[in-house]
Fold PAC2 family protein.
Amino acid sequence: MIEIDALTDLVDPVVIAAFEGWNDAADAATSVVQHLIHEWDATVVGRVDPEDYYDFQVNRPLVGTDASGRRTLSWPGTEIAVASPPDMVRDVILVRGIEPSMRWRQFTADLLAACDDLGAQLVITLGALLADTPHTRPVPVSGTSSADISGDHAGLEVSTYEGPTGIVGVIQDACARLDIPAVSLWAAVPHYVAQPPCPKASLALLSRLEDLLGSPLPLGDLPEEAKAWERGVEQLAEEDDDVADYVRQLEEARDAADLPEASGDAIAAEFERYLKRRGEQ
């Protein structure tokens, strides 16, 4: 059970959750949640007891020093924070943690119960996977939803994936069984630059979140960091002929697969996001 700090009633809250580990290539998904926690100055209202769900030989506690010079010990786990973004008409519940080592079903039940106590109306999970996609092209983001809300959001489909899954997949399954509206967004990270961070993938997830929520989200330094990341990868690719040839092959395959209509839709969506953000300013 997760104890939640006493709060006033939240307004139509939406959950945005991401977990380190199998679901989080290049830390792209958890970086989005951490970014929003920082930008919105979110307040932590609950923590999962790590003793019940984590193997501390896999995810070890960290020793450090606080501002007063005292030694501290921080344990791995999952935190729940809430924010009231100034540009949104609803509140947000932000969940950031580590994929648990054990008792996934109880972990999921406790987490969803805590979100239900906060009045959550929609659960959005974020993930990132390694894929054959070139770093020079827009990062693909796929979106799936539970069957009952798939028609309400453009670009979302009912998931047909079959195979191994992580805690994100378990949470999505639990939401479907409990009739909780749920959406899962996944960014495709170029597999040849898998080391974190990947701000370009995080920015792509954030842009897709904007579309889903219908409100501008704070981008902070992510656009500049994404450009710097792409320049850095480009320099590394130019230093290795084999990598450069491989990237060109990926670019050709990607360009051949992209339809003109899809490119037009992408441009229109980006322009709409620009107008919304400009209108808010």
Remarks:
- The helical segments are 28-39, 104-117, 167-177, 199-213, 222-238, 241-257, 260-280.
- The CA atoms of residues 26 and 196 lie 4 Å apart.
- The two ends are 42 Å apart (CA to CA).
- The chain has a mean pLDDT of 89.
